[in-house]
Structures are given as structure tokens and as C-alpha cells.
Amino acid sequence: MSSNRGVVYMGPGKVEVQSIADPVMAAPNGRKLEHAVILKVISTNICGSDQHMVRGRTTAPEGLVLGHEITGEVIEKGSDVEMLNVGDIVSVPFNVACGRCRCCKEQDTGVCLTVNPDRAGGAYGYVDMGGWVGGQARYVMVPYADFNLLKFPDRDQAMEKITDLTMLSDILPTGFHGAVQAGVGVGSVVYVAGAGPVGLAAAASAQILGAAIVMIGDFNKERLDHAAKMGFVPVDLTQSDRLGDMIAEITGSPEVDAAIDAVGFEARGHSGGEQPAIVLNQMMDITRVAGSIGIPGLYVTEDPGATDEAAKVGSLSLRFGLGWAKAQSFHTGQTPVLKYNRQLMQAILHGRLPIADIVNAQVISLEDAAKGYEAFDHGAAKKFVLDPHGMLKAS
């Protein structure tokens, strides 16, 4: 390794690319990890979840190295790593998971019981998720490598499709999870809230699962225009606050079979102000009786920037009685990436899921990460992919 560089959170509204320590095969508490590998990062993406921290909407500490969407090449491995070799190109699920606890054994890797002393679930470069160093960097350490890492079967093929495969670390499985948990199947009528990268990934997932029609709602015209180009039906939320009526104009019915919330706790209403529960309440309103709602959008237990005291501790004003009366199913929580990423890899490699085009991926250098964060924060209809070593540009 040469000197490492990484994207560092410097406080609300500010990130910097700085020299950071080279990774070592040790846990945040210093315990040596022979089951770990060191990766040369090939690609690492800016995620909307990162933006929540950078906006100051979490309790993230200054100095945190960001980045949980990682694809890399194994350059060093511990003595307990048996299934991987130096030179392998791998996708890193954003979940840090041990593979040994009850949750991991049941494929609930988003809530691993051992990798975070404070709560269930771990992730790279994220607040309250175990202290694992993030991967918006040149090099990163990954623990429990045999369990966590997805090896690509052919190096040349992987590099040809690397801008698609980089989405396997988070947003594609997250969107797919939302669609699966919403019960999307052949002939489903689907509404996705939010036309950002996760919403687009959810919409693409709904299509590949057999949906008859996929509508996607947003206030951002640029994002809606891109969604329309990708074959989804845009719903311009600036036109009305009666979502059911707008859906009825498209499908003939104000209700859908499946709804997916890809917005999360920073949702806004027509007044322009934040209404953190508005999307969840809309989902209950438009989803049919006995329908399902998938919620891949992020909700937090602590939001220091919330508009009211209740929301600061994750307490939202939900019309839950409506959902109960309609016998609806809800599914929340971090996506267990390992449950889906191998199948989604095959869909990419065999040309079934051009996800980089769908989310409008734009490759930029690691050193330009701050510009990417700023553009994304202003609603750019793009998914920014960082290229720490120039390998994507070369490919």
C-alpha cells in the first residue's frame, strides 16, 4: 500500500479528502482479525444515507471516514481466510456481519448481533454502527471476509461491468429488498416514493420482479425526467397533494398493490417544510387492503436537526390506525445485502439489469468527492461513483 486517502466528515455541510491511516486487520477495539482482508478500493459510491450525516442530521462525530458502498481487489488476507485469494475482485455488502450469530444464520445480516457493542447491526463509515472505518478511500479493511464478500467470477468481465456491479454493495439490493417486502410480483401495480438512486433501484427491481406498471413520485423535475427515460411512470408531486387522485389518473384506481418508501425521515410536504411521517402516511392511504409497504428509506433514532422534539428521537406522527384497519404489512430496517447480491450479480452479468444507466451513474475521482456531495445534496439526478485509483476510467 501507498499512503491512504479518504473522505472525512468535518461537521455539518463539510467533507474533506484527507490522508488517513492505512487499514490494519483489527477490530475497532484493537482485537486482531485473522478473518479479515485488506482491499484496494476499485469503486466506492456516495449514498443518500451519507448525506443525512453530512447535513448534520445524525450524531455522527467529526473525523468519521465515510463510505459503506465498496467494491475492491483483495491485496492482503488473514490466516483464517480460506475462500478468497489475493487478486480477487469482490463486492462488499454495506452490512458488517459475523456469519455466526442467530441473525446472520437466519440471513438477517443487517442486524448482526456481534459486530456493534451498542446495538444490532454494523456498517462501514456510519454513525452508531460499530466504529468500522469507511471505504470512501484508497484502501479499506473488511472483517469476516469469507462470509461477507461476494467474489466476481471473472476479472475481465467484472471490470467491463464495474459501474453496474458497484451498485451491489447497497442501493440495488436495498431497492430490491424494498420491492420484495412490498410483495411485488407479476402484474403488480407499484408506487415508489422518491426518484433518487434507491428509488430508481427499487423501481428497476419491481420491473424485474414482473410489475405491470411502476410509478415513481418526486418533487424534483430532473429526477422525474430521468425516471421517465428509464421506462417508469413519473408522478410530479408539485402538481397536487392528493396522491391517490394522481395515481387514479394513471391507472384508473387510487390504490396500488405495493408501495415502496425510498425517501425516509427527511421527507417534505407541499408546504416545503419537513414532514417526516408524510410518506409513510401516504403509503398507507394508497396501498390496497391487505397490501404491503416496503420501507428501505432511512429512519433514525436520533435526529438533532428535526423540526419537532418528538422527531428528534425518532417518534413520528403516524396514522397507524389506517394501516391496521386495512390489514397492511410493513417492513423496515437495513437490507440484508447477502440475501440478494449473488442473484442480482447474475442479472447484471447476463445483461438483465443495466443498473448504472438506470441510476445515472457518474464516475468522479476520489479527490472530487466534496463536489459530488455538494451536487448530490442539491438534487442532481445522478449516482456519484468514486474512482480512487483511476481503474474505472482506465476500464
TrEMBL record:
<dbReference type="InterPro" id="IPR011032">
    <property type="entry name" value="GroES-like_sf"/>
</dbReference>
<dbReference type="GO" id="GO:0016491">
    <property type="term" value="F:oxidoreductase activity"/>
</dbReference>
<dbReference type="Pfam" id="PF08240">
    <property type="entry name" value="ADH_N"/>
</dbReference>
<protein>
    <submittedName>
        <fullName>Formaldehyde dehydrogenase, glutathione-independent</fullName>
    </submittedName>
</protein>
<comment type="similarity">
    <text>Belongs to the zinc-containing alcohol dehydrogenase family.</text>
</comment>
<dbReference type="InterPro" id="IPR014184">
    <property type="entry name" value="HCHO_DH_non_GSH"/>
</dbReference>
<dbReference type="InterPro" id="IPR036291">
    <property type="entry name" value="NAD(P)-bd_dom_sf"/>
</dbReference>
<feature type="domain" description="Alcohol dehydrogenase-like N-terminal">
    <location>
        <begin position="35"/>
        <end position="153"/>
    </location>
</feature>
<dbReference type="InterPro" id="IPR013149">
    <property type="entry name" value="ADH-like_C"/>
</dbReference>
<dbReference type="InterPro" id="IPR013154">
    <property type="entry name" value="ADH-like_N"/>
</dbReference>
<dbReference type="Pfam" id="PF00107">
    <property type="entry name" value="ADH_zinc_N"/>
</dbReference>
<keyword id="KW-0520">NAD</keyword>
<dbReference type="GO" id="GO:0008270">
    <property type="term" value="F:zinc ion binding"/>
</dbReference>
<keyword id="KW-0479">Metal-binding</keyword>
<dbReference type="InterPro" id="IPR002328">
    <property type="entry name" value="ADH_Zn_CS"/>
</dbReference>
<feature type="domain" description="Alcohol dehydrogenase-like C-terminal">
    <location>
        <begin position="197"/>
        <end position="264"/>
    </location>
</feature>
<keyword id="KW-0862">Zinc</keyword>
<keyword id="KW-0560">Oxidoreductase</keyword>
